[in-house]
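Bug report (template v2)

What were you trying to do?
Predict the complex of my protein with pyridoxal-5'-phosphate.

What happened?
Run completed; filing so the output is reviewed.

Input:
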Amino acid sequence: MVVIKANAYGHGLVGVAQFLERQNVRHFAVGKVQEAVSLREKGITSTILNFGPFSGEEAAQLVELDVSQSVYTDAVDMLAEVARRLNKRAKVHIKVDTGLGRVGVPYYEAGPFIERVASISETQIEGIFTTFTEDPEFDRVQLDRFLQVCDAAAQKGISLGLRHAASSAAVATFPESFLDMVRPGDAIYGLEPLPNLDPRPVMSLKTRVIYVKRLRPGDAVSYHRRFTAERETLVATLPLGYSDGYPPQAVEKGQVLIQGRRWPLIAAVTANHSTVDVTGAEQLQIGDEVVLFGTQADQELTIGEVADWAGSSVYKVAIGMNPTLPRVNIEA
Ligand SMILES: Cc1ncc(COP(=O)(O)O)c(C=O)c1O
């Protein structure tokens, strides 16, 4: 099961799902009902599990569109009611909290809840799952708690479907936790280095120069004249700013690639624009490609560098990319 919540971690929900279906991935997880609806509207036929909450109206969408839902409270009754009305079965994955403490029926109270869900004829238990704290020692405790819950239900003759627990960190380091299915997000996109895996980031961020100007000494750029030229300075303006997801904090140390070379960002990253000192660039043209992270010629500027400049993480930079930015999917 590939986690494609948060717009596929910024990569573009539908494009990523379509690509992964072509690679024979048959299970997806999302964080919001609307993401599941968009996927079904675009023809994604695989299992989609919604981790997030749902309203009464959304319960009908979930059942109609055959979307599986994470359940751990009485909200399961809303699904059952809708399923009864539609003469269908609502597919559910029971979420067990084994120590992360966010959502899920606590492992020590899970038995009665599982029995209750199993007794509702309009629901089908397609799976049961938990989320690790990613503290390796405690993950083992959590796995034991989870397996005890699953075994106790199995002994009562309850069929739980797929048992799943491992997100990327556990996929890399904790094979005992693989159970019936693994559930990575991060590693699929190559976002963070992981032990035993050498993922490469698949996302690049590119734009084009929209304006080039030569500053005279004393000329300034941006609000409050943030940058003032001390010498003649060639400046390229980019149509990309923090509203697009580029972290404004990166500006102090930030660089971009143009003509296969690194050039410094100057002044400020504003909502829709950034500026670059390209003094010395030859024949720079409006329309020239700019790489904010990714490769150009034989040069690479990584999303990790951008995250470091911004005091952020690769994960947050990727997830923060504005969903309206055009995604171009390149299959390598
Ligand atoms: C329930 C659940 N499972 C799996 C994942 C995937 O985690 P990761 O991106 O670390 O692989 C997430 C993401 O936050 C999640 O919320």
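What did the reviewer find?
The chain has two domains: 2-189, 205-319. The CA atoms of residues 270 and 326 lie 19 Å apart.
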